[in-house]
């Protein structure tokens, strides 16, 4: 499945950056959920470009229209279709991009796969703009999860080589909700200034930088998930790798886990009253593919935006010759801050889909 | 889907460590494939325990029986069912494990999910032993892929903090095939002795260590994969996270990608004759979720075996009290060497499933 | 899966009769297909109401807008989203329908399933109007199939107890294409007048009638399909039962097959030159779930429209009392003629989805 | 999906008639279900051949072995694998069947699909013998459904042109359970003698006959199912069409519905105390794809066994010539009585899969 996803809820993502509209259909949502559209719009604004000098100056209004599935603000149980019309499209000449493959982008693989018929304007269906409907869906999922006490939140873990702290074992819902209120969510409030400098520095060099995002999901009851092909990790990772530019997904301590001794890596259980907890949370709330009741914690790594203004060497698939390419236009020197809410959204969608009793 | 998997080929995994048998059903394989059973047995031996002091002294014969789908050594097109009877089971008393939850294991989440009815003997369905039928399926997949010129291979990238080199941009099929002939495949032949020392040291301390495995798939044609929910990363990662103890999956340079500048991370295209190549392969052969023709390269991180003989603190779910647990029995101080062929197998299964023309 | 469907191509259906819009997303279509939009509009017109006195006088323009996946009239390979805005909605009072459950409709089951939150206006998501986007998708599928020489066509087999002939074993593509040009496609040209009389008679009595539709798919190569869960019958039947009011799906001679002797039912093979044919086609081109190269023939039975103006007894779920209901408004006394193209569409979608090489 | 099936529970069917074994894997069953193996064996005996002169004299012991998922007679939550070894295989010469395609069988389509590599001995994977593991799975499903008060039962509706009565609107669980105790379940006790005569008559003529089976599922709560692609009809029909020889599936009155007026076809609701009922049940307990709380009733038509001893004309795919074929061996003149429990099993599996709260 490529455009469609889900075992329980059902997603269908559509649209191209400079086509008529982008959007998403969300099937199998419970009926009777009163959606807080103001909050949804606010979540979508967290992703929207043009809010400061660190992101692209494009102004995408991202005004979402509900085409179906909502009546008087309440879900009807029928598929919820949200659509965002594309308006701020520049009708510039894209013919060069049909021939000269931008390094690090989908251009060449897509050219081969679609025999040159793919819409290359603004990245077409591969555009990061497609994450706007994802954030819509994620915001809906978050509202439903919140009614069950489940809270999703994330922070920027690093920009290039500037690192924030990691979530502690005692992370709370309040901590997560506080993070969503920060324009650049970090646990250590000092670190973002350094991050900003790194990003600004990259912009001045016509270059770009990447980073990592750490996300936590609190209050997932123990016993959710499965062994093997539908472990929580197996269920969430395809969603996370669907986010353009994500090159790594890790749970708990992730790769660092491989450098520990067993006695360090194991999270020891204890009773706190009747509640089962672990003293550490190196496994990120999941063992054997199933939740243990501790916060589910994971991290994604995002590569630097491939769109840079520096001259790069590449190929021209029409002339079949090696060539040089200079990409012009409006680019984010770093998409990590805008990707935080996208990561949260995928996490919320994935967890909601695993809950049979929604 | 938990036990079943696949869009194109279809897997169904069954069995418990101390049940009657473990096995796998593989549906939708092409008819007319002459399976090299000797090679399959050899691949399965790469995973089997008891071969040296670094792995568990259990002797699992892993003798695979074909129950269906093969006639005169050739696939019939009907589901191929392979079964391995469990023979070397110790009938020791497992009652303690029903009450005392081993840290780092699936015990507690499984206890909650299955209301205490799960088979805890030897880890039950969560046992690493279930990877034996996975290797069977992977070996079949490799043979089919090889007929198309596609080769899968892997090496131990690290054991604890001892690191091997990484695959270079010019890795060849011969390199990969050479690796499979090494009992402990590493690129740098000196490094395994250090790795052995780390493992042996852990064993002496009644502890365990983890590591990482890097895998490459060569000759996947450009244009395989999809944007978003069925990107190559999204397709392979659930399989890789199905391997017990895998906590991280990354493609290309993975997390390190997040520390590069865009001009460093982008892989620049060039023509070598008619063939399109990239000068570097930081993206691991995939951009926009689709293959670009370069080797697909990924890495998984494996946590240290949670079974250690040291005393650990945990809970007793029957008495609802905190307690201490000392696990006896035969354990691998490090499963990484045996996991190499499991990782290769999942990669082969995942890529084969994405090819429509099998 | 409820709103989403497909193994190979991917459908996602959305919309409610009196919501903002209805539509469909079609994923995994091949890139580079030049769509004949005039033909698509003509196919959609075959389904549209308001064309004569036998169907509802509602004028639904069904003007389809392409939101994504098409560039310069050619598919891009990205999901193709088609949308039809709802315009001819009467803002009449639907409060009675929220309480009084119409017999034969989805009202009561939907009331229970959606806890009363479903949109009841015009039938909401259950409206036959949702078949308009299905016809869009089916028309696209037909165009792709036609490039492979595969032709789909159907005729009205019966209206109430007035029966047309059945397809013969030697049905041709030309026959099928001729049928699509008839406003009321029947094989026996005399029979439709009788059918018209039955429908007109039902209208005068404020009643409704049903009927059956027989469909053929010609030139499906032998060897398509699977045994068991993905037999051609198993693949097509869920699509056909998705058409509102279909209560029976049968292949070949269908139920009548159960009254034959084996020697009558078996279709005997013979070579006509190099081509394999059968002397009869009682099995409708499918044995063992797989096509044998003969026309695939099936039949669906459609119940009489449940919307009738006669007084009916029912329940009021608010007052919890038995009551009487008189449905007013514009109703089709018979939807069978309009359903012909819907049946063809589902057949085309189902067959296209089974072809790996699209 | 061909060998695998299910949204919620997961089936994987394997085996060939004369291979080593046939079997099924059932994933995602609830843990903690104590299986009544005696009842399962009895249900399987209802399907087994060799019990009287009306079925094939083959003695298939169908002794089921549980390979995984059951501990001390209780489900563990891990995949339940049941296997039946093939023992009563005649090692006769099957070379003729590799060349001469039996009319009405899967031989020719399978020959094309599998390029001649399919196992033709005893029908291979297409053998009706594969329904034995289906009955195992269905028996498990029935036991779980029964704990929720849901009962499944069926009767022979017709053999050739001898018809039994149909289920009435007031069918009870007791009625259904009574039927399972009859070796040849019919509502009208007189009718089976006539049916027996028809079957015996066919045997004497070296011919075969088919028939129909009507099935009811009682106490399915209102609100189960979905509109469109996952309607109850869409969910059950692929399972029913997976049963070899089924050519028609209809719900409620089925095809006869198409001959009624709307005022006759509509099932009028009324309150009986607090319970909602309908006066008639022409819609078979389903409107809009969703259950209304009345018994779910459907019918399947089964074609006459294609294996007949009469000489038939066919093709030889090796010599590419038309030829004559005389099939020898042990054949059922009528499989309908043995298929009753198979139909019940598929119904139970399908309904269980739709219930999220299992």
UniProtKB/TrEMBL annotation, chains A, B, C, D:
One of its GO terms (biological process) is chorismate biosynthetic process. NADP(+) binds at residues 47, 53. Keywords: Amino-acid biosynthesis, Aromatic amino acid biosynthesis, FAD, Flavoprotein, FMN, Lyase, NADP. It holds the Pfam family Chorismate_synt. Signal peptide: none annotated. GO terms for molecular function: chorismate synthase activity; FMN binding. It catalyses: 5-O-(1-carboxyvinyl)-3-phosphoshikimate = chorismate + phosphate. InterPro entries: Chorismate_synth, Chorismate_synth_AroC_sf, Chorismate_synthase_CS. Its cofactor is FMNH2. Pathway: Metabolic intermediate biosynthesis; chorismate biosynthesis; chorismate from D-erythrose 4-phosphate and phosphoenolpyruvate: step 7/7. Reduced FMN (FMNH(2)). It comes from the Bacteria. HAMAP family: Chorismate_synth. This reaction introduces a second double bond into the aromatic ring system. Belongs to the chorismate synthase family. This is Chorismate synthase. It comes from Longibaculum muris. The lineage of its organism: Bacteria, Bacillati, Bacillota, Erysipelotrichia, Erysipelotrichales.
